[in-house]
Each structure stands twice: as C-alpha cells, then as structure tokens.
Amino acid sequence: MVGSVNGLTCLAMEDYDLVMWNPSIRKYKKLPDSRPRLKKLTYDFHSYGFGYDEFHDDYKVVGIFTCGSLDQVEFKIFSLKSDSWTSVIGCLSGVLLNVLGKFVNGKLHWATMAPGANRCMFGNIISFDLADEKWENVELPCYGGDEIALFWLGLLGSDLSIICDRRGTHVDVWVMKRSIGLQNLGQRCLSSSILMIKWIIPVFHPFSCQMKVKFWLYLDQLS
C-alpha cells in the first residue's frame, strides 16, 4: 500500500502498476503507466508517495525513479484531476531510505543518506509540497554529536517521526510538531538502550504514541 487519505487508498501492484481504490463504494481506478522515459529502460529503484492537495482539491502520487548512480533520476507526479503523469524538477543527493513517502500536512517526506566527510554518512529529509509542487529540505534534529548509523521515517498520529539507530547502542525517536514547522524536528519522544546482534539490522516502525509516555514499537528482523 502506497498510502491512504480520506478513505481513498493507493496500491502498488507489480512493477509500475498503481491503483486507486475506494473500499467504501467498492470502486477502483488503474493509473496510467508511470514508467519513466529516460535513457535506460529498467530502473534499479523506484519509490512512490500518495497524498491530498487540499488547495487544488486533488489527489496526487509522486514517483522517484533511479537507475545506477544518482545522475539518472526522474521525478514524476500524477494528478487524479488531470488523469496524467507529468515530470517535475527535483534533486536527489543521497540514497532513499524509505520506499514510500510519508504524507504529513500536505507534504510527502523521504529520508535519504549520502556519504559525508571522514567517511561518515550524512542524513537528510526531503519533502515535496503537493500544492506548489516544490521540494524542500527538512533539517534533522541535533543528536548531540553522536553519529547515527541509520534512521527511518514514520508517523505518530498526524505527526512525522524519525527513528534513529545510534550505532546499535540505543534508539531515539523524534517527533516533528506542526507548530514548529520544517526548521526543527521538535522534541525527542523516546530514547532507549537496545541489545543487537551485530549482523542483524533491526527495522523499527512506530505503532502508537499516547501522551508521550506510552510507546509501542514492533520489530522486523532482517537477516
């Protein structure tokens, strides 16, 4: 499932096949082919995000397609009103960490990771505003000088969250409150020490958060 907004669900089938489905009225619509038209016919990775453009009263799907290196990237957006895909300008400076874009407050968000100085990895979040169809960078929270190994995006209620793996010693969860905006990913919701088998990477997904006290995570073990 790519995403669900206002009872309308976007599903990714095989390869580049997408379907919008309204379960309440039991109707669906197959989207036009989203396959990119760049030089290469096959792509190493593609990611989708689904959301609602309140300003134009339109449901939109954003696709990011990469092949080989980052110099071959295409960004496309589908509008349900126009029933068509169009190319949009964008810049991807790192590898996408989440397969699906997270829709929050009219924008889709992706986490990226790119090599930085001294062989360190540099994390970043890119967001796409569905109304003006422009990209922005979201500043990550201050980690106190500790390098993170990996991080993932999630949703806690209607807020964007970041789950940070600090080199296998502990996990931090940060929440971006709407009142703060894009400049800072708000306050830390949870910090917990974890035990980890060295060659098994745990992927955490936020499940629920109540009053910033109770917090549930479920864990997928990837061998």
TrEMBL record:
Residues 6-181 form the F-box associated beta-propeller type domain. It comes from the Eukaryota. InterPro entries: F-box-assoc_dom_typ1, F-box-assoc_interact_dom, SCF_F-box_component. This is F-box/kelch-repeat protein At3g23880-like.
